[in-house]
Amino acid sequence: MDLLPCFLLVSLVLSSSHLVSANFYNDFDITWGNDRAKILDNGQRLQLTLDQSSGSGFQSKNEYLFGKIDMQIKLVPGNSAGTVTAYYLSSQGDKHNEIDFEFLGNLSGDPYIMHTNVFSQGKGGREQQFYLWFDPTADFHTYSLLWNPQQIMFSVDGTPVRVFKNSEDLGVAYPKNQAMRIYSSLWNADNWATRGGAVKIDWSKSPFVASYGNFKAETCSASSDCSVNSWYGAEALESSEQQKLEWVRENYMIYNYCSDSKRFPQGFPAECTR
Fold first, then answer.
1. Is residue 186 a contact partner of residue 228, using CB atoms and an 8 Å limit?
2. CA geometry: angle at 161 spanning 1 and 243, to 5°?
3. Are the CB atoms for 96 and 211 separated by under 8 Å?
4. In the chain, N or C: fewer CB atoms in 10 Å?
């Protein structure tokens, strides 16, 4: 994403092979929105709120280099047009790296759009968008990222939806040298989020609320040895995962930068050959 923050919680430690379920109190800081962001249920659940005055967000206290991360989210219900719930990893600076989930709000009855993007060395523009095959506001669903030196895999409830492979051999920068924090935010993006900005937020429906919980992560710090982790060396999907990925692409993908010939009349980016 090119705009505001997003991603979630971790009770991660500085060793290389810990599976952790986070407590929001211990491992996350509320970064903006004051009391619009609330930690509930003894640290097991977090709630972000957007009203006409402000949105809200939080970030992890620590930063990490590579990981396998699961977060359950229940998105804003009803008429959420103009809102964005963002959940991502990001480093800092002009040449930053970033891995994004963004959920673009909708008019009541219309599907949410799940927007994904990858930045490496400050360059993004690698958008893929999907409709979801369930109502993401009715219950919690698990949104996952696996990030290792070979690939980045986005998954929903264990179903792979996108794989971005390391294509450094083709001259494409890959996010592997900068540690990143976890961020999440709920904010006003009605200048672009719903039908290109044509549908604005209906503030009579506010406050808008997104909920988070049941976070798990197996991660590395910038200084730890990740090679002991089973996910660290993963390069290829299993056949069942590949079939699920193809099913999502065939039935629910609505935009892929690697097939946008109007945007790339001189030819697609090199990584699109993978």
1. no
2. 165
3. no
4. C
Q: Is 92 within the bounds of a domain?
A: yes
**Residue 76, in any domain of the structure:** yes
pLDDT in tens, 177-213: 999 999 999 999 999 999 999 999 999 999 999 999 9
- Give CA–CA dist 129/135, Å, rounded: 16
| Confidence (pLDDT) at 208 | 98
* Mean pLDDT along residues 106-131: 96
Task: Count other Cβ atoms within 10 Å, centred on residue 34.
Answer: 9
Domain membership of residue 53 as a residue range: 18-263
The CA distances from residue 242 to 92, 167, 248, in Å, are 33, 19, 10
Q: Is 28 exposed, middle or buried (0-12, 13-18, 19+ CB in 10 A)?
A: buried
From the list 63, 98, 218, 271, the catalytic residue is 98
Catalytic residue (choose from 63, 102, 127, 218): 102
Measuring CA to CA, which residue among 59, 130, 61, 72 is closest to residue 98? Answer: 59
98 is catalytic: yes
Cα separation of 112 and 154, whole Å? 17
Domain count, the chain: 1
Q: Where residue 219 falls among pLDDT bands split at 50, 70, 90?
A: confident
**pLDDT score recorded for residue 18:** 46
- The two tokens of residue 94 are 């002009």
pLDDT band at 236 (very low <50, low <70, confident <90, very high): confident
